[in-house]
Amino acid sequence: MTPERCYPYATVLPVLVVVALFTVYPLLYSAHLSVHENVLTRPLDHDFVGLQNFREVVTGYYFWRSLWSTAVFAAMAVAAVALYGLGTALLLNQALLGSALLNVVVLLPWAIPTVISGIIWRWIFDGDYGVLNGLLLVTGVVKRYVPWMSQPFTARLCMVVAHVWKQGPLASVFLVAALQVIPPALYDAAHIDGAGRWRAFRFVTLPYLKPTLGLVLIYETIVAIATFDLVYVMTGGGPADATAIIGWYAYTEIFRFLNLGHGAALALILGVMLLGLVMIYLRAFRAEDAT
Amino acid sequence: MIHLTRARRLSVLALALTLLLAGDPPPAHAQGGPVTLNLVSWSYGVEIVRDNVAKFQQRYPGVTVNYSDFSWGTYHDAMVARFVGRTPTDVLYASDHWLQEWAAAGWIIPIDEPFPQVRQYLAEYSPFVREALTYKGRIYGTPYYADTFIFVYNADHLQRAGISAPPSTLEELTRQAEAIKAKGIAEFPIVLGWGQQDPFSIESFTSLVFAQRNGSLFDKDFNPVFKTPGSAADKVVTWAADALGGKKIMSPTSLQAANLDQIRSLQSGAATFGIVPSYTLAVLNDPGQTQLAGKFKIALMPGETRATVGFIRFYAISAQVPRRGKDAMTAAWSFLDYFGGKIDGEYRITKRWSLDKGLGFAQTALFADKEIRAAFGKWADVDMLQKQAQLARAKDGMTPYYGTWDVYSRAELHKAYLGQQKPAETLANMARKWEELKAKEK
What we know:
heterodimer, A: mainly alpha, B: alpha/beta, 8-stranded mixed β-sheet, two-stranded antiparallel ribbon, 10 strands, globular
């Protein structure tokens, strides 16, 4: 083989090795774990069990319930992140006084690790000494402290708020970048044609943002469904498993129930579900582009 | 290759000899060779741990200790990751909660075979400590501290409500809480650390079960007795659901609270009654933390038997140590003996934790120690503490699958407390889960 023919292989090889090491190998190892019995408290039993782990996970006490919790959480979180991202992006795109400061304020949560932001929000929402309760009490909105994270519905809302605060800035960054490449001449033309702000947004801004919004939706769906760190820090899945979403159970199976076989099976199911969702998104966007 | 002249070779040899001789001669306590021990603990009294480690290293100059710590709430999971990932871990904090699990997984080793001298201490321990340190007849460590769950109350609240004595049964607790609520002293007089994320929550629940008549969760063959209608667990779950959702005398924040949240709630005066590990009473009555210091008292656990959970946190040796050889094993035992055993005839480290932090102890004789009585007397009725300790029992159902059942049960209990399902349904589900796990273990 001539050096010219070797060159492309040689340049691609290191990347392939890294990908194989950090993606392909773990994936294959997970697949191996998922078809073997692997309970850490029974270290000598590693029989091949076929699809038994998958069957046990799907028929387990938490699977369908947590799937529903995940769907509810993801629907609320993705919609809220997209709206927050869009709103702040439109704001940041204006040449307003103090926009540099606004940039920092909006982007700051992105730089804070999720675990830290989870702790912060746990304190804010605390039913005994939380800042939110203090604020609402002083302003007369509530008459007594509200145990936000002790009721299933409000606990879910608290999780969504914390998630949006953390994830919203990334959506903002994407959308600001998309907004900045829209030719101003299009807005001028729209105004000449008599379009108001809403119609200019609807027929100029939105079509330009669509590919980026698609990206944001796909990414945020993946992040929301795979969330476990916020649950870990804020609620531990409670109360009554109301915030125990499926990513949390993948973690729990491994680290609490010590069942690597179940954990790997659940992680693979989760991966396939995400792949399916991404494909549905992509098809939907392609179909819209075609029309 | 480097070529040395004869004179230079002699100089190098002389230098090497000098360096060798300049080192300290091996002291009386030194081991066979220099050994590094990796110590892992949860984050509590870290400065005291560091100081104790420094003193240990002075006494055993051949042993160096690398210390790392993780928060209590994340400790179990962090240790699982360390064990599975084979991160160097030699000596560690462990809990009776996880003993069976970690021993069955082969992560920690029994110490009474390589170091039979550990058995000399057993006679000095409370019965619940001996039971809680044992798995399949083998001893797995030396005590870091041993404590009991105690019932605490704000004496000032009781006085203002015209109540002369703390409750002795759940029914009395309900009546007193209703009276305190009616007088506007506290809207939710009872606060418990029953957040789903807190490992203490099942122990606090079990304490209340133990205090009731026939108060057990499992029989000696590990059959769940709690599912029987009218069982002690049935009584406790029904009472809690009513206190939370019916009479509204239990703070709703109990379902999100960890031990620390419970302390803050009591210290702020928002609640009157709580169930805490006994050392927490030292924190509750710390004048540096609350204006209510001194108001918090201990009473025996409300129920017919007044029993409670006694628990042990201990120093264990990881299964990595034997693979490192005899020196490492000897060093690890020296560590366990120094920290959990006697130094020059006295339990120096144990006593230090008691004096500095109010931690309980495994050794019953320490209740007679003058210094400890004086120190504990600043924040508690020591006789009452001792009385409750004498009524303490190790948690029953201790098996390798207890941890899995615990995680499942915390959520099931929440469902009953929130009225999502009846107590009987919750207990039946918990029993079914237990039987399922037990069957798999066979």
